[in-house]
Specification:
This protein is of the alpha+beta class. It folds into two domains: 14-196, Creatinase/prolidase N-terminal domain (Creatine Amidinohydrolase, Chain A, domain 1, 3-Layer(aba) Sandwich), CATH 3.40.350.10; 201-431, Alpha-Beta Complex (Creatine Amidinohydrolase). The chain contains eleven helices and 16 strands. The chain has helices at residues 14-17, 43-60, 71-78, 110-117, 143-157, 172-180, 189-196, 201-224, 231-244, 305-323, 331-335; strands spanning 65-68, 93-97, 103-106, 126-128, 165-167, 185-187, 249-257, 278-287, 290-291, 294-300, 357-360, 367-371, 388-396, 403-412, 417-419, 430-431. A six-stranded mixed sheet has the order 4-3-2-1-5-6. α4 (110-117) links the parallel β3 and β4 (126-128). α2 crosses α7, α5 (143-157) crosses α6 (172-180) and α8 (201-224) packs across α9. It starts with 13 loop residues before the first helix and ends with a strand.
Length: 434
């Protein structure tokens, strides 16, 4: 009989933690309260799944460890988040050694908080750290040097210091200090993006909940869009609605109306809505970190034939792309159904980038896959079961200033896809109809 003490322990995979999703059932829109009478999002299962995905991607790479400063990657590895204010500060970071547990360096007292309230992290792996707040603390003061040497020591103890260290985003002086500490720095973004591209049932439930919140926001817009209202008034009301319903970050509400529709500026102003305006909106927000990107177009009071025609073409371009979505399809196949840039008034594909477009959704607004004529025709990737992404199209009207913009969020199932952005958009909605 084999000595069982000598057997290799079974490696836990992401599939062990999160079995294949039951696509035969309708995607649930789960409540946010904890209850005892039905299973909802299991956040600890979500944490185990994400860490397992990252560890698997790390094992497949030539990296010895991942060092992440991007707040989305920090959350993916550690299931910690301290607030949107820290998104652009590079004030926190996490280290995942190959075969090891994640270590988080946090902003001051947040490290102490994690020791009390984040039992999935080892207490000794919750550390306070400071590398400079994007240069506000001069690198010459030695904080970066201190932490670089600290991490090099950890990686030596883990036996991976001679392997490359994968980094996502970093301040140049911090990278220089890591190299001085004897570490070879390489790109770690691709490893993290590979880990994050297939969503678990819990992630899909959170993305679906986030989309449901935007469904409600668009009903609000449909009710309030009328002459005399300004773009920023709509933005304010949508922000209030989303935060009231549990959003943890309203990243942007783009509100574009009238003559501002063409060309597309990707913002909002205090422009006042007028009768006959075509107006489109993009709502980018997150629930428990999981994001939406969700366009809808309306007309105010009435619509001209040119505006209706633009909407019809925009919808047709989008539907042709959605029809193709299933596992095994390559992104170039999808991009080819969209018109070339010159067909809708742009000099080249780069100038039109983001108008006929697909992008993954998750903890970040842009994840894998990216679908565009700029990229996909020469560098196609394969659509996989469990991906979640948005497809968006844009069509300027022949009047020279109006335009239509529509976007749907889709989940890739075992045999096809499911659309989770459900505010009606088959035909041009008319708000404040006369």
């Amino acid at each position: 009989m084999d000595d069982i003490t000598k057997r290799e322990p079974k490696k836990i995979t992401a599939e062990d933690i999160n079995p294949r999703y039951n696509w035969g059932r309708h995607l649930p829109v789960l409540g946010t309260m904890g209850v005892d009478f039905e299973e909802r999002v299991d956040y600890r299962r979500l944490q185990r799944y994400r860490l397992a995905r990252a560890q698997m991607a790390l094992e497949k790479s030539d990296l010895g460890a991942l060092l992440v400063f991007d707040v989305n990657n920090i959350r993916y590895l550690t299931s910690t988040k301290i607030g949107e204010w820290e998104r652009d500060k590079l004030s926190r970071w996490a280290l995942l050694p190959r075969g090891g547990d994640p270590i988080i360096w946090d902003f001051g007292s947040a490290a102490v908080h994690h020791k009390l309230y984040s039992p999935w992290l080892k207490p000794e792996n919750c550390r306070a750290g400071l590398v400079g707040l994007r240069g506000t603390v001069d690198p010459s003061f030695g904080l970066m040097k201190h932490h670089a040497e600290e991490m090099a020591s950890i990686l030596r103890d883990a036996g991976v210091a001679k392997m490359p260290l994968g980094v996502d985003i970093i301040e140049p002086p911090m990278m220089f200090e890591l190299e001085k500490a004897g570490l070879k720095v390489k790109d770690g973004q691709q490893v993290m993006l590979e880990a994050r591209e297939i969503k678990s049932a819990d992630e899909i439930a959170l993305l679906n909940r986030a989309a449901a919140m935007v469904d409600g926001a668009y009903h609000l817009i449909h009710e309030q869009l009328k002459p005399g209202v300004r773009e920023n008034d709509i933005v304010a009301e949508v922000n209030k609605f989303l935060y009231t319903h549990g959003s943890d970050d309203v990243e942007a509400v783009n509100a574009i109306s009238g003559e501002r529709c063409n060309p597309h500026p990707h913002n909002f102003t205090d422009r006042m809505i007028r009768p006959g305006d075509q107006a489109f909106f993009d709502i980018l927000q997150s629930f428990m970190g999981y994001r939406t990107c969700y366009y809808r177009t309306f007309n105010v009071g009435r619509a001209t034939p040119a505006q209706r025609d633009a909407y019809k073409k925009c919808r047709e371009w989008l539907d042709k792309a959605i029809e193709l979505i299933k596992p095994g399809v390559s992104t170039d196949t999808i991009a080819k159904v969209w018109p070339t840039a010159d067909k809708f008034g742009f000099p080249d594909e780069l100038s039109a980038f983001g108008l006929q477009f697909g992008h993954g959704l998750g903890l970040a607004l842009h994840e894998r896959p990216i679908i565009s004529r700029v990229i996909s025709l020469d560098h196609p990737t394969i659509i996989k079961e469990g991906m979640v992404f948005a497809l968006e199209t844009y069509c300027p009207a022949t009047d020279g200033y109006s335009a239509a913009r529509i976007e749907e969020e889709v989940v890739v199932t075992d045999k096809g896809h499911t659309v989770i952005s459900l505010f009606p958009a088959e035909e041009l909605p008319i708000a404040a109809r006369y």
